[in-house]
Amino acid sequence: MKRLGSFAALVTAVVPILAAAGGVILLSGCASCQSTVRQLAVPAVAAGSFDGVEADQTAHRLYLADRTNDKVQAIDISTSQPRFAGSIDVGAAPNGLAVAPELHRLYAGLSGGDLAVIDTQAGSPTYMQVIKTVNVDTGDADLLDYSPSLQQVFVSTGIGGDVVGVDAVLNEVKVRYMLRSNLGQPRYDPADGMLYVTTQGTDSLLRIDPASGKVVNTIKVVGCRPNGLAINPGRQLALTTCRSSVATVNLRTGAWDANRVVAGGDIVTYDAAVDRFVVASPHDRNDSAVGVFYGDGTFLGSVAATPEAHGAAFDARRGLVYAPGAAGLMSFAPGACEPRPDGARFAGGMSFFVVPLFAAALFLVWYARRPKNREPAGPTYEQLRHEDLENERRRMLELEDSIFGPINQGLTPEP
User: pTM of the entire structure?
Assistant: First the structure.
């Protein structure tokens, strides 16, 4: 019983250590981007297919351009449980979206060439209604960008080959940049005061001086066929989606680098409050994804998405990304994509070796410390051998007595 008690005490002391080491292994595999994905059932959103997705960080509203139903769907994201806030009928399939929070306006580029101006001022008699349409092209008004400093909405006309600047106060066309190329996403960079736009036909980013209306530089991104574009003005870094990859472009030097961590994509968004890019990458049901990148263009992580997710947006207050989902709306926390600290990663890797080695050491310690002088359960080999020799000696003495008679009986042999 004493031996068993010693072993039990040893096990009692060691089990917590083994459990802690095992915990390191388990923790090293948990908490991923995908594990934080939430699906919110929104029937009005689930029934549509979407292009642009924009968040109004001031009003805590999410807007989705529903091309199936010719509407912009609104989601209230002011609480931890988003809720459907209504539909805005825009009269044609909406493409890109842009928000002017200080003007309480939402803009939607429409198939047919109009820019819809929507009132987002709560309490207004025209709240959540189109208050004006501005014609910018005979074809399409496609992707948009809004500049608060210029109070202009920049509208790409896609295959129409123009970028149109619309005065956001007067709601009228102010300037037209005729670029004669199939255009993608326009983005205004407040850091250098330039307007950038992607062109698939020439594998380029065009830099336009709004003051002169001229293209002052062409940044070649060979083999990319760029489409979506977002700019981090603090770093003068652009992230653009390519045909099958994503490219970062240094706007100061023109240097670029492509990677395939996300297989191409559509719309790219940058949020300065969280210093993150988000890329919507719609493909088929197995390959669609939403990817997140740091503000320096380094890949952070991605989650599986639906083919309807052509755009995604940040909720900067809650640190979430929203995009169209299978049930209507999906959200996830990109913070869960963050790599673990080096120390935790080292401990997690070492635990795979430490645990079996520690178990082996435990066995050796137990074996070395086991009692060595315990009484055997039966006679040992030496005891049995000694007993056999003693029995054999007695038989020999009995044989001598039978032949020569008893010894030491005072008898002497005859002469």
Answer: 0.76
